[in-house]
Amino acid sequence: MTVDLAVVPVAGRGTRLLPLTKSQPKEMLPVGRKPVVQYVVEELARCGIGRLIFVTGPGKTAIENHFDFDAELVAHLRETGKEELLAELAFEGQPVEYFYTRQRRQLGLGHAVLCAQPVVDNQPFVVALGDSIIGLHAESQVVRSMIDQFERARADAVIAFEEVPREDVTHYGIAKPRRQTGDVFELDDLVEKPDVAEAPSTLAVAARYVFSPAIFECLKRTPPGKGEEIQLTDAIRLLIQQGGKVLGAVLPPGQRRFDIGNFESYFQAFVEFALADPDDGLALRRHLERLLAPDGSRPCC
User: Fold this and answer.
1) Residue 5 φ/ψ region, left for φ over 0, alpha for ψ in the -120 to 50 degree band, beta for the rest
2) Do 132 and 40 touch, CB atoms closer than 8 A?
3) Per-residue pLDDT tens over the stretch 182-216
4) Phi and psi angles of residue 142, each rounded to the nearest 5 degrees, phi first
5) What is the dihedral of CA 252, 258, 261, 265, to 10 degrees?
6) Are 143 and 44 contacting, i.e. CB atoms less than 8 angstroms apart?
7) What percentage of the chain's residues is helix, strand, coil (to nearest 5)?
8) What is the pLDDT of residues 73-124, one digit of tens each?
9) How far is the C-alpha of 15 from the C-alpha of 77, rounded, in Å?
10) Are 221 and 238 in contact (CB under 8 A)?
């Protein structure tokens, strides 16, 4: 049976993006023409995911509302002669079933995944972080490729990784490959935020995972760390240590991760997606060129 179920954790408060996230989920922030989480869902649907479990928290009802059918809005667009805008709501009709469960306390990403166990039950599943887009306009097929690797190798987990500059390894979980002979490799360990000199590689965890149900027992056995949070990385390490087969898959060129976790990365993602917009990207590019021109040719206002 192929993997067609995904867990999308969206319970985080997004405090690094205040005040934007005071009254709206960070996963609903716009990047180009769509909210972040819509790109994630469209990516998963494109990769064959038919059932999706959101792990939510306080203040996240906008996500549920976004993926509901809005018959009143459709009627309004038709009555006011704006039928051409109905195409912008096509995502509502995606062949995806949505389920919602709640992380009642902020106890880390690992705990959020564990909250989905009663719905997932004894099935393999994808985890896709709701604040991270893979590939420009989320046209990536990396999750499909990871599922294929998971099934072919009969693995316990497959984790996506991306190359990062060595000076940035201190911000990520970093792979220690057993033997890296290509873009797919077996993991010997994961090192959380290592010092630059001690990092076993420059491959950083990239927000997409495929798991067998074995991860749930590892999460239950993972002790809380800083802030009483249960870390998913620690549970993956336990899975490796007890003999589980855990593979890493490197993101292919052109399918890098856009992490909407802080203002710098959010601004960069928005600009890059907006510049690629088929209707208004060229006009934006010209505007930016004028703004960045030498002082002598810069517009006065």
Assistant:
1) beta
2) yes
3) 789 999 999 888 889 889 999 999 999 999 999 99
4) -65, -35
5) 120
6) yes
7) 40, 25, 35
8) 989 989 898 888 888 888 888 889 999 999 988 899 999 999 999 999 999 9
9) 36
10) yes
Is residue 299 within 8 A of residue 290, CB to CB? The reply is: yes
Sign of the dihedral through C-alpha 62, 67, 71, 74:
positive
Token pair of 255, please? 């399918």
Bridge-based pairing state of the strands 5-9 and 51-56: parallel
- Residue at 156: amino acid letter: D
Instruction: Report the distance separating Cα 249 and Cα 205, nearest Å.
Output: 10
Q: What six digits make up the tokens of 1?
A: 């049976």
Global pTM reads: 0.90
CB-CB neighbours of 55 under 10 Å: 26
Determine the 3-state secondary structure of 64 from DSSP: helix
Q: Within 13 Å, how many C-alpha atoms sit on residue 145's CB side? A: 15
The pLDDT value recorded for residue 301 is 47
| Helix runs in the chain, H state only | 36-46, 61-66, 71-79, 109-115, 117-120, 142-153, 214-221, 232-241, 263-275, 281-291
Residue type, 39: Y
Partner residues linked to 194 by β-bridges: none
Q: How far apart are CA 149 and CA 57, in angstroms?
A: 32
Q: Are strands 132-134 and 51-56 parallel, antiparallel or unpaired?
A: unpaired
pLDDT digits (tens, 9 = 90+) for 113-149: 999 999 999 999 999 999 999 988 767 899 999 999 9
Peptide bond into 9 cis (omega under 30): no
